[in-house]
Design brief:
- Helix content is 36%, strand content 17%.
- By secondary structure, the protein is of the alpha+beta class.
Length: 465
């Protein structure tokens, strides 16, 4: 058997149920790996004593042959934006370094009810405002494949953790690609479910929500296992009600019809293009129907910025005015940019969001899923200004948000489920991601298609010299 820390979530859960591995051993292995790979800087807080105490209680239940949850004894981490009872939730920000929530977020509570054991909080840029996991409070989280390239963000610590055996499961959050971006950069799997499928009551505006909590794992099976315990209605969430249209699972007798979106108004790295085209050819070899589709998603960026900047201004504008020196300068700049918008700008952004939703619905009327690159290029070099511009394939490509991840943020606005899975590596050894997008409340179908297309996880660099 592989080292305990390197086991995938489903395999580990099965071994625990068979009493081949104890929950104490599983938690201990994850904690040891966190210590061994401390240079990656993936955690903001570690709750070792509490986790081991919970593991001992889980072990006792198993030895007594009591009914246990589907994830009994499996270690998991939670991104530092999501509330965890009695465990620091700082939002990646020094202003909230002493914050101790009194209750778990819905997703955390459901994972723990299924038997999963919280081992710590993973790193995030302040309030998840940028796609690079770095900030004044904790420094920089390193990509496990290359220290010279970003691990992505804002769920960067979560992606690094699952990629390197610091617990096989993680709970991330996604406000514009923040699960899928680091999943692609680190070679793991990450799901942004349908809006409301996993209730997220921390969003300040539940009706205009575009931020999601979701599962990350080393493989599709792990994401599926965690999603199954996270998903479910909650009457406190306006979108977390019973689905109006029943979901479905993939039928092996009916091949999925894939709308292939290679470009969306962006410059595309040739290695990414080669990898995703090859994956679509492999899909055809598996009997799937692949048809090209055109859609300009880059044009939605200015409208997405209205939402992002306005929300951060409303939440943090007072803090930025009183204590700008205690905030990340890029967060302050993002907040200040929000002061220039009017109510009409916000309405126009809502109109654009509606138009994009309608266009996606048209495509999904005739196709089961949309496939695209997750990112326009593999992980970018560290040290770039997240508010600046970027070159891709040696060509000026525009702003980092519009140029690097135009495939992700539109689906935060439209609410469609989207999953990123590994799709090969670049010549430099950097992972490449494939994104699949499905219909509302067809998350199970989307995951099943992803499972059929899944390849082996990308093995990280075991250590930096």
């Amino acid at each position: 058997m592989a080292a305990i820390a390197d086991l995938a979530a489903v395999e580990l859960a099965a071994a625990i149920r068979r009493r081949e591995i104890s929950p104490v051993e599983a938690v201990g292995a994850a904690l040891s790996r966190i210590e061994e790979r401390a240079e990656l800087n993936a955690f903001m807080a570690i709750c070792a004593d509490r986790a081991l105490a919970e593991a001992r209680r889980a072990e006792a239940r198993i030895l007594r042959a009591e009914a246990v949850g589907p994830l009994e004894g499996v270690p998991f981490s939670v991104k530092d934006l999501t509330n965890t009872e009695g465990v620091a939730t700082t939002q990646g920000c020094a202003l909230f370094a002493d914050s101790l929530p009194k209750a778990d977020a819905v997703g955390v509570a459901r994972a723990r009810a299924a038997g999963a054991i919280l081992i710590g909080k993973t790193t995030t840029p302040e309030f998840g405002h940028k796609p690079f996991t770095e900030g004044p409070l904790f420094g920089r989280t390193l990509n496990p494949h290359s220290p010279g390239h970003t691990c992505g963000g804002s769920s960067g610590g979560a992606a690094v953790a699952v990629a390197t055996g610091m617990g096989p499961l993680a709970l991330g959050s996604d406000g514009g690609g923040s699960i899928r971006i680091p999943a692609a950069c680190c070679g793991v799997v990450g799901l942004k479910a349908t809006l409301g499928a996993i209730p997220n009551l921390q969003a300040p505006d539940l009706f205009g929500a575009n931020s999601y909590v979701g599962p990350m794992a080393r493989d599709v099976a792990g994401v599926k296992a965690l999603y199954q315990v996270l998903a479910g209605p909650d009457r406190r969430d306006p979108y977390g009600q019973v689905a109006a249209f029943p979901g479905r699972a993939a039928d092996p007798a009916t091949p999925p019809r894939i709308a292939f979106l290679l470009r969306c108004g962006n410059v595309l790295d040739p290695e990414v293009e080669t990898a995703v085209v090859a994956e679509m050819r492999r899909a055809e070899g598996l009997g799937m129907i692949v048809e090209p589709v055109e859609l300009d998603l880059v044009a939605l960026e200015p409208h997405f910025l209205v939402f992002l900047r306005s929300i951060l201004l409303a939440r943090l504008g007072t803090h930025a005015a009183r204590s700008p020196d205690r905030l990340d300068p890029t967060l302050v700049a993002t907040i200040e940019a929000g002061r220039g918008y009017s109510a009409a700008d916000l309405c126009e952004a809502q109109f654009a969001r509606t138009d994009c939703f309608a266009r996606i619905q048209e495509i999904l009327d005739t196709h089961d899923v949309i496939a695209s690159p997750t990112l326009s290029a593999p992980a970018l070099p560290v040290g770039l200004d997240p508010l600046g511009t970027v070159e891709i394939a040696g060509r000026p490509a525009g702003t980092i948000r519009g140029a690097w991840y135009p495939y992700t943020f539109p689906f935060n606005l439209t609410g469609h489920p989207a999953i990123s899975l590994p799709c090969g590596v670049s010549k430099a050894g950097l992972p490449i991601g494939l994104q699949l997008v499905g219909r509302w409340h067809e998350d199970d179908y989307l995951i099943d298609v992803a499972d059929r297309l899944a390849i082996d996880p990308v093995t990280p660099n075991p250590a930096y010299v």
